[in-house]
Design brief:
binds 5-O-phosphono-beta-D-ribofuranosylamine, 6 helices, alpha/beta
Length: 201
């Protein structure tokens, strides 16, 4: 069975590109929509260049009314009839009531070794804590921020010379390897955790 996948982005969409490029051949998933809450997101043009349908649901007119924004987002998603949604650098918090629509069918990538460092500024927080390892996680999305069962993690060793920027740059290729691997396994009904040693990529 082919799994129809919608990808939600807010920015450059490098994880979206990695996911979309992986969904070919005997991979059981296909991208059906890339949707952004920012109409100027660079990832929208990248998706169009790859021949994927795109949509923008601008959150700004809905400021102060998250529920109405989510109704618009849900309507847009429904038209593409996805089986699975993948949040990939999607920078809006989604409410528990929106997530009920996608229970067991939504994935997210987060740049930390969850459950550590939910939320923003993860790279700086790793440095501030003097952690020796850092990483990224793909998890099922629930109604709680950066929560839900962890389906895969990739880790890198923190160097004494690292800054938040170098950590982000070194982690991104690990994200690009991890997310497609988890999505493919998830589409095959396999929730065994994927583990990637980012130092050896
Ligand atoms: C990634 O680091 C992702 O983990 C985080 O935001 C970044 C998005 O990058 N949530 P991109 O838009 O996929 O290039």
């Amino acid at each position: 069975m082919t799994n129809r996948v919608a990808i939600l982005i807010s920015g450059g969409g490098s994880n979206m590109v990695a996911l979309a490029q992986s969904m070919t051949g005997d991979n059981p998933a296909r991208p059906v929509l890339v949707v952004s809450n920012d109409p100027t997101a660079g990832g929208l043009a990248k998706a169009r260049d790859m021949g994927i349908a795109t949509a923008a649901v601008d959150h700004k007119p809905f400021v102060g009314d998250r529920a109405v924004f989510e109704v618009a987002l849900q309507e847009t998603l429904k038209q593409a009839q996805p089986d699975i949604i993948c949040l990939a650098g999607f920078m809006r918090i989604l409410t528990p009531s929106f997530m009920e629509n996608w229970a067991g069918r939504a994935l997210n990538i987060h740049p930390s070794l969850l459950p550590k460092y939910k939320g923003l500024h993860t790279h700086q927080r790793v440095l501030d804590a003097r952690d020796s390892i850092h990483g990224c996680s793909v998890h099922e999305v629930t109604g709680d921020l950066d929560d839900g069962p962890i389906l895969g993690q990739g880790q890198i060793t923190v160097r004494s010379t690292d800054t938040a920027d170098t950590l982000a740059a070194r982690l991104l290729p690990v994200e690009h390897a991890l997310y497609p691997a988890v999505l493919e396994r998830f589409c095959r009904g396999d929730r065994t955790r994927v583990t990637i040693d980012g130092d050896s990529l």
